[in-house]
Amino acid sequence: MTLLRDEELTAAFDHAARGYDALAAVNPGYHAQLRRSVRRLGLPGHGAGLRLLDLGCGTGASTAALRSVLPAAHITAVDASAGMLRRAAAKPWADGVTFVRAPAERLADAGVTGPFDAVFAAYLLRNVSDPDGVLTAVRDLLVAGGRLGVHEFTLSGRRADRAVWTLVCRGLVQPAASALGDGRLYRHLWRSVVDFDTADRFAARVRAAGFAHVRTVPLPGWQTGITHTFVARRPETAR
After folding, report:
1. Measured between alpha carbons, how far is 208 from 139 in angstroms, rounded to an integer?
2. Interatomic CA distance for residues 99 and 122, integer angstroms
3. Alpha-carbon distance 79 to 58, whole Å?
4. Which of 42, 72, 111, 135 could form an SS bridge with 48, CB 3.0 to 4.6 Å?
5. 51: Cβ–Cβ under 8 A, 6 or more apart, which residues?
6. Rg of the Cα trace of the chain?
7. Given pLDDT bands bounded at 50, 70 and 90, which one contains residue 238?
8. CA-to-CA distance for 46 and 52, rounded, in angstroms?
9. What value does the mean pLDDT of the chain take?
């Protein structure tokens, strides 16, 4: 199948928004793993005085992870899908969370200009047409020394991990999604991961975008070798 991109992918997420949280709940540890990736950013205290960008917030699961770990931070949560964003914004939030509709490639057009102390992007980069351009733009939104956290499906490169990913998608996720009328989006999910960078290749991509101190850390459980946290920093001085 051809991967969904840009407006076509956004429309698919709009349609899937109503059942997205239910499908995510089937994934063991989904929310706990997001919180784990946020903690790996190593931000101080409870986030007091920090400005965070949640890039590709979806229905707000990543926003909730940031809020849980860093409750005193101000969070700007951005997504291109109006349907996903409506679901996110309708949930109860304490003060300090702002939702903005914008594609990751056109943040400035929506008034998202930074600077931010950290950017967190969960399940986003493999879905954009120009991941290198998005990473470069994110780097420029960060303060000097600001941190990037990416939580993403990136296979290790081992055949066993690809086989597990395919089994989970075809045996569990796709049948459930098809029953909700969203089979095409979740077929895209399987293919987008298989076609995207391995973990090592993605770490190299982050370095090439001008980030320093790039670390790759696997997630535990069934996602080991399938999902990783990538943590990096904008250099203190320009290259």
Report:
1. 11
2. 16
3. 6
4. 72
5. 73, 74, 76, 114, 115, 116, 117
6. 17
7. low
8. 12
9. 96
